[in-house]
């Protein structure tokens, strides 16, 4: 990947779009963000139309949107961000008073990165946003890595370990399931915080099977055990299917270290590994 495609990942001067019908809410979020991130540029939008116009004027690093807007559903913002050139993996956070209900009823789409309960307040939202645009290392987190190429695995493992992440590498999906089963039974020395898998694996099972089994058979939700899928397939429908099956995010090949590490840290932070892991 070219460096210009990575500009939206980590920045000392991030551009954050805040979409909310209330001018007061937009100002409160902007004020807190500017205090926490002195170099931030906050783009306030009151509607879908304003947000679409802003997206045409330049790339953004993160978007927050409420669901109810004067000209439609906030999920339209998420779709617009994904459709904008170079914006495919910009985090889109839905801020809602009934976000949990939307999640339970599967009303959120693959376009949404995560949700935030607005009852937690603007200070907490600002901290949440900072974790995305300027992610901090999560020392000691353990990644279960499924990759059938030893050469690729060695390179990728070194990338992860350079950022203080522990990596347990297996060659097949079946080996990953055995380790997860042992962990669930309390028979493992490992405590996995994230699964990283290639979509194409030797043997009968693929990366998509890894996603489906973790979500269905193990019944681990996206926060309990985030899954990143590495794929060289740029077909949007195939990508969408992986996300709908339960992948938290995708990492496109060839793997670029900054992109991979940013996504891993995103998901570890969102999972609340240090604070809420025992509660979910």
Q: If you had to describe this structure to a student in words, what would you say it looks like?
A:
The chain has helices at 23-36, 48-57, 75-83, 99-104, 122-133, 150-161, 173-184, 207-216, 236-245, 257-270, 273-276; strands spanning 15-19, 41-45, 62-66, 68-69, 72-73, 92-96, 114-117, 142-146, 166-170, 194-198, 227-231, 249-252. With 280 residues, it is an alpha/beta fold. It has two domains: 3-133, Rossmann fold (3-Layer(aba) Sandwich), CATH 3.40.50; 142-279, 3-Layer(aba) Sandwich (Rossmann fold). A five-stranded parallel β-sheet has the order 2-1-3-6-7, sandwiched between helices. Strands 9-8-10-11-12 form a five-stranded parallel β-sheet, sandwiched between helices. Strands 4-5 form a two-stranded antiparallel ribbon. Helix 6 (150-161) links the parallel strand 8 and strand 9 (166-170). Helix 2 runs parallel beside helix 3. The radius of gyration is 19 Å and the shape is elongated. Mean pLDDT is 84; it is low at 1-9 and 273-280.
């Amino acid at each position: 990947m070219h460096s210009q495609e990575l500009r939206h990942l980590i920045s000392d001067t991030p551009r954050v779009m805040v979409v909310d019908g209330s001018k007061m809410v937009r100002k409160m979020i902007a004020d807190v963000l500017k205090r926490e991130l002195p170099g931030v540029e906050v783009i306030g939008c009151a509607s879908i139309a304003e947000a679409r116009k802003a997206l045409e004027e330049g790339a953004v690093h993160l978007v927050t949107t409420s669901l109810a807007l004067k000209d439609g559903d906030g999920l339209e913002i998420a779709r617009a961000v994904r459709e904008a050139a170079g914006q495919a993996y910009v985090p889109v956070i839905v801020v809602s008073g009934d976000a949990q209900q939307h999640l339970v009823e599967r009303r959120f789409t693959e376009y949404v990165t995560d949700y935030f309960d607005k009852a937690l307040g603007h200070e907490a939202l600002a901290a949440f946003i900072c974790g995305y645009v300027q992610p901090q290392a999560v020392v000691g987190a353990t990644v279960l890595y499924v990759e059938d190429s030893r050469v690729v695995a060695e390179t990728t493992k070194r990338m992860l370990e350079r950022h203080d992440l522990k990596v347990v590498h297996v060659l097949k999906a079946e080996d990953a399931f055995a380790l997860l089963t042992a962990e669930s039974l309390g028979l493992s020395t490992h405590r996995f915080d994230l699964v990283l898998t290639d979509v194409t694996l030797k043997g009968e099972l693929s990366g998509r099977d890894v996603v489906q089994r973790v979500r269905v058979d193990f019944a681990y939700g996206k926060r309990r055990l985030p899954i990143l899928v590495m794929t060289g397939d740029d077909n949007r429908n195939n990508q969408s299917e992986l996300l709908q099956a339960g992948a938290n995010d995708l990492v496109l090949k060839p793997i670029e270290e900054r992109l991979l590490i940013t996504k891993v840290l995103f998901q570890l932070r969102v999972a609340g590994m240090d604070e809420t892991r025992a509660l979910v």
